[in-house]
Amino acid sequence: MNTDILKKLIGDSGNIVFFGGAGVSTESDIPDFRSSTGLYNSKENFRYPPEKMLSHSFFVSHTGEFYDFYRNRMIYREAKPNNAHYALARLEEEGKLKAVITQNVDGLHQMAGSREVLELHGSVHRNYCMKCHKFYGLDYIMNSTDIPRCECGGLIKPDVVLYEEGLDMEMLNKAISYIKNADMMIVGGTSLTVYPAAGLIQYYMGNKLVLINSSETPYDRSADLVINGKIGEILKQILE
Ligand SMILES: [Zn+2]
């Protein structure tokens, strides 16, 4: 069985890096924006396409509408970590896994106990005043009506990478460094078609590249092991 091979590969490794996409959170009932059942393909009629509503220019020009959409569609406060999150936290605790690199903004890895989490697209749990840089938690955003403002009057922005915005280069470089030094790389819950996922995987130089995804990816042929399935179910098995 492929999970037995995965188990053995993990057993032989001491410097694992995990890179995860939206599929890691779907088992926690957070929809994958780009999947066939995700938001972008939903039959609901939004006034603007979701990509537009989650863009930097829309945030600036239609701040109220941005927050309306953001609060209702981007925040899943009831979501709890799933087996994938817990398995990764345990591998870190055992000293085998060095970092989780994620494209998700939900904070579920930290909730499960992971410590070294590189959030390439930011986090809904961090919000900053654009004027004085005072920090605000998610509660403040959810409890404010209309546009959340700082006590200084400044506009508060979620620390989430919106469309048209660049990634934090320092964090990206840190992620690259973890990947370069890893003896094993597990990629999960991503179809590897969205930037920067596909680019990052090319920095891995070892011979234990494992892809776990519900469907095929363009990198299946370069991987040393491909497992198709739900990542939570698969990672749970390797800990048994
Ligand atoms: Zn302020």
From TrEMBL:
Binding residues annotated for Zn(2+), in chain numbering: C129, C132, C150, C152
EC number: 2.3.1.286
Chain positions recorded as NAD(+) binding sites: A22, T26, F33, R34, Q103, V105, D106, H121, T190, S191, N213, I231
Catalysed transformations (reactions): N(6)-acetyl-L-lysyl-[protein] + NAD(+) + H2O = 2''-O-acetyl-ADP-D-ribose + nicotinamide + L-lysyl-[protein]
Cofactor(s), names only, from the UniProt record: Zn(2+)
Residues the entry annotates as binding nicotinamide: F33, V105, D106
Single Gene Ontology MF annotation: zinc ion binding
Gene3D superfamilies for this protein: SIR2/SIRT2 'Small Domain, TPP-binding domain
Cofactor binding, note field: Binds 1 zinc ion per subunit.
GO cellular component terms, A-Z: cytoplasm
Pfam family, one: SIR2
Keyword tags: Cytoplasm, Metal-binding, NAD, Transferase, Zinc
PROSITE patterns for the chain: SIRTUIN
Superkingdom assignment: Bacteria
Subcellular location, record wording: Cytoplasm
InterPro entries hit by this protein: DHS-like_NAD/FAD-binding_dom, NAD-dep_sirtuin_deacylases, Sirtuin, Sirtuin_cat_small_dom_sf, Sirtuin_class_U, Ssirtuin_cat_dom
Signal peptide segment: none
Domain (Deacetylase sirtuin-type) ranges: 1-240
Chief location of this protein within or outside the cell: cytoplasm
Active-site residues per Swiss-Prot or TrEMBL entry: H121 (proton acceptor)
Described purpose of this protein according to its UniProt entry: NAD-dependent protein deacetylase which modulates the activities of several enzymes which are inactive in their acetylated form.
Family of the protein in this entry: Belongs to the sirtuin family. Class U subfamily.
Name of the protein described by the UniProt record: NAD-dependent protein deacetylase
